[in-house]
Amino acid sequence: MNWPIVAMLVSLLALGVAAWLYAWVKSQPSSNPDVERIGVLIRKGANTFLGREYKILAIFVAVVAVLIVLFLPRPFWKGDIGENIMMAISYIIGSALSALAGKIGIFVATIANVKSAEAATKSKNLSFMAGFRGGAVMGMAVVGTSLLGVAGILMLTGDATAVLGFSFGASSLALFAKAGGGIFTKTADVSADLVGKVELGIPEDDPRNPAVIADNVGDNVGDVAGMGADLFDSNVASMAAALVLAMALDGNIGINTGMVFCYAAIGLLSSIIGILFGRIGKNGNPSTALNKCTYITTALFAVLTAAATFAFSFDWRYWTATIIGLLVGTVIGLASDYFTNDEKKPVQLVARASRSGPAFTILSGFSYGLLSSFPSLVGIGVSSMASYLICDTISAGNTDALFGISMAAIGMLSIVGMIISNDAYGPIVDNARGLVEMGNLGEEALEITDDLDSAGNTVKAITKGFAVGAAGLTVIALLGAYMAEANAALAEHGLELLTGFDVMNPVVFFGMIVGVAIPAIFSAMLIMGVDRNARRMVAEIHRQFEEIPGLKEGREGVLPEYDKCIDIATRGALRELIPAGLVAIAVTLAVGFIGGVHAIGGFLVGNILSGILLALLMGNAGGTWDNAKKYVEAGNEGGKGSVAHKAAVVGDTVGDPFKDTAGPSINTQITVVSLAASLTAGLFATISLFS
Amino acid sequence: MNWPIVAMLVSLLALGVAAWLYAWVKSQPSSNPDVERIGVLIRKGANTFLGREYKILAIFVAVVAVLIVLFLPRPFWKGDIGENIMMAISYIIGSALSALAGKIGIFVATIANVKSAEAATKSKNLSFMAGFRGGAVMGMAVVGTSLLGVAGILMLTGDATAVLGFSFGASSLALFAKAGGGIFTKTADVSADLVGKVELGIPEDDPRNPAVIADNVGDNVGDVAGMGADLFDSNVASMAAALVLAMALDGNIGINTGMVFCYAAIGLLSSIIGILFGRIGKNGNPSTALNKCTYITTALFAVLTAAATFAFSFDWRYWTATIIGLLVGTVIGLASDYFTNDEKKPVQLVARASRSGPAFTILSGFSYGLLSSFPSLVGIGVSSMASYLICDTISAGNTDALFGISMAAIGMLSIVGMIISNDAYGPIVDNARGLVEMGNLGEEALEITDDLDSAGNTVKAITKGFAVGAAGLTVIALLGAYMAEANAALAEHGLELLTGFDVMNPVVFFGMIVGVAIPAIFSAMLIMGVDRNARRMVAEIHRQFEEIPGLKEGREGVLPEYDKCIDIATRGALRELIPAGLVAIAVTLAVGFIGGVHAIGGFLVGNILSGILLALLMGNAGGTWDNAKKYVEAGNEGGKGSVAHKAAVVGDTVGDPFKDTAGPSINTQITVVSLAASLTAGLFATISLFS
Questions:
Q1: Do A654 and B362 touch (CB under 8 A)?
Q2: Considering only CA atoms, which of A581, A569, A506, A583 is closest in space to residue A534?
Q3: Which residue in A228, B87, B418, B677 is a FRET match for A344, CA 20 to 30 A apart?
Q4: What ipTM was estimated for this complex?
Q5: What are residue A502's DSSP bridge partners?
Q6: CA angle at residue A406 from A404 to A407, to 5 degrees?
Q7: Nearest CB to B517: which of A367, A377, A405?
Q8: CB-based contact A609 B612, cutoff 8 Å
Q9: What is the pLDDT of residue A220?
Q10: Where along chain B do its domains lie?
């Protein structure tokens, strides 16, 4: 079987399904002019942001592409310039495809939100389906284009290093999309809440609030396009790592390379089938419906890969590693759910602590965030150790064992199509809820969209846990890929090969301890960026309420200048993001030039360890605070307006940039650094101060 | 020269100086009966806590001693039981000497506070000197007993492993003293503030507040006894690591072992001389006076060790490593100062952010905490790499290089006598300020003690940075000691020796990723302990204000039941501490039995990396919040009672358990785990599931 071709065919099928789902969404009725008008504002805002972002990104990509042509994988005066050009092209295609997937996702999400809002006046199931199928377009688009791209690049070049270049392109885009989108969305969210809810006491999504459209745009650019780019990136990176190692095992494209594509195609197929089950009964529970789809996909994947392994004589050890990854992903998801679900103790105890004031909300939520890292870290540790040991044979060096780890990552990410669908569902129904409120579609519709929205939040916690776990395993596999790349360069210069990274080697240890600092600095810079940007937007909201007559009173026909706020969020997000990204890359290069390939190995490990810890801490603490606030608002611990509520709002505000800006961006930061290290391994193998 | 004997003589000199300083403090007048009465309450409270703590500790030490006799360094049926008994005795002596030093420190501090308060009515210099010399007694007692103990144990047994046992004893005590004391002090502090300042609006240190004595007791048990035990522990651990490696280099006690004692003795001598300079002019600045002593000690140490190295032909490479440690310690201290000093940008910007409410206080302070980890991590990384590379020779394996790292730790800790003196000065003058307020000693005395107190806070940030840096280098050196111990056991069983810990080995990686979680869990459990315990105490304070007639109104002769609050803080601290300590040790054993000596190596690295990161984050964020609050209270950003002030108080309350409970306890937790690993290396070398 020519598995890359099979994978490309399944990808095209997924894109076909995406088109069909889009047609279905598009065919749903939308008649309310108010809702339509606001929907257009949101769509335009999102496109403005994407346009500006992509323009800056295009410059960035162009600069990096030139650098690649000059220096990577080998300086042009030493190597084959054709290889460098191929790498640069792969890089450009990686970023372009990821951008395209994001654009498709936003395009559909900003239609589906209107359809879902409108449908809520008629049927809960239709409203749900508009949201879910809108999200599924994104899921199919991301996985379809990424698999198509990876398979295509490998077919064209026959070189796994080019896939690394493709992956680096996807990561560059993800860094902008996730971190930039994260700053945008939280700037708008925090500012809208601060002036609207806290100062003026007007409800969420009140159309008088100048930041309200920016807030809804933020859901789309942060949670749809940003999250999609993030998982596009993880998915491609896990495949790139697996392919580098598979081709090292096979000698060239062989049975293991084929297996990677076969499993990825089966994962995508399973997601397609799972998506078709996405519907609820008249009074059904939307969370159950979403989870049902996930379980169907998971079970299908396990069964079909087993059948394929039997039929095509793949190695059962790698199948086992894949399934271990899948299972551990589920465990990590469930652990995240435990810490952030309002039916469980942590959220309820944080709500209880809020009775003593905001300091106790923060302390207890932060403590649960720290605790929540334990099951996930142990899960990642156990799955990487188990898949390594299962796949280890003495004869093959340790490449087979590392390949086992990369297959565990593939397993964890196999159902990513389903995960993105669930995840993109969230912001769509969140938007729909806003549109129902702004368009006055009635109490019943509001109740329905509230219910759909809350299911989105619950499912989000699980998928976020998944994303961190997947990123963790992927970067471990990338460590193996990095070593393979560095060794290729070392061998070329007749230097001693790496056999590993010994922490007792001071150069490795130096890299490691500096690496630990990077996710910390990166997330601090993003949080500070949100903070600074929110300050600018709050000033603008104040100005509008002061200078536009009749706005505060809600006089008929008086509208705020929504686009000013969108503009501030856009400019600020891009401005605040760039230094953070540059620091991460600059320190990587500095460590490489000081300590060479050994130091970079340690540096990557330090990055991974502190990155996973901080991502879990921030993501889960943020989720706990968010749901503790909602739990109080549902009438517990004194309900709305109580001391506990005020304290819980503080927790939620702290949690917003934790969980939606810094936490998830750390994944991307680690991946970018890992890929940058793999690509520059050749340089640092020959040029460095110590080592 | 018989350097251990010289070190013991200098230790005795230090104890003599301590006695002289004590006599000086004791000879200062104290005539005010109110102050004396409250002073007695504080003294009794502190002794109650110490008594209970030591009672529980005695049981703990007895159990561990029995386990040591049975199993360590080798199971009694396999090895020499005499060796095991010797180890158990060293362990008991280690914990007993550390306890004694803590007891001495508390004894003097609870006299010096009264003297300093009384002196404030007459002379600023006398008030300062009472505080500083009281603190110096602690400094001399800690360093004198620890050096005496280490030298004595080595003289008696001739075995560096016994010194590890001694060090483990000191660490066990430090865990109780630092974490238990940390929970005690913050329970009392948070509860007293919550009911006193926030609910009732009565000033700090108001004698009507039932928690006020507990709060002052907390300063002593947390900051005097706890911090003393922590630095006793670090100091002994750094010497133990250096001695294990020196004796491996020398074959037995030789020139390098001698150098360790020589440098330690010179450090102690330099501290003694530095202390004698501790005085201020009539209107002098107390911070300047404290820093002057530190600089004198540092300079003396550098010069005298150079002279000794020349005179006794020690290896200049090790001297260089020692001085690098000293310099980097200073850099780390200055970096901590930058992030927590109210004359610098971070504190001022956190105060500014507080104008937008508590969420922004938290976000900005947390971000600076994350950023603050960078210079210290780079400092630790550079100093360990530089000292390794300077001391590395191919002929000696890498033992000489690891010994270089341990000498950098010795260098960083060389001035520990001075550091403890500065640090213990803080709580004494803090107490004195309370006594001046409670005893109504007048406005002028209050101003003087306020000034002395604020100098204590400034110096504290620097010394805390030092402590984290020293702990970091020490545990890196302990990693070398662990490998040496594990290899001794492996050699005995004819197994393959460790040459390092390769992160690409899945068992090492598993240990590492689990190790990352431990400081996170440990600190979360301590923070939650403070939270739960403060809740109990707040309930008790409410009960007293309700049930004791005339208390709230401050009727003459009506006193709260101070001892009830002390009792709650004491019981709670010990109850909350034990599970946290057990989890850390249980996971260490579990990882050892699963993955053997390789996994434990990784586990220690994971512990070190996340421990240093979290300790810096929590310590510095806490310091920033504390000083931002004080900055606002000094009249900036709206001053007392403003929105910014309320927000800054929330930041300070969050920061309290961060900086005084969890952050500094992490040091001790890492050291305990490292030593437990070294001692049990023999067991895990032969018994484990994988590896």
A1: yes
A2: A569
A3: A228
A4: 0.90
A5: B502
A6: 65
A7: A377
A8: no
A9: 85
A10: 3-686
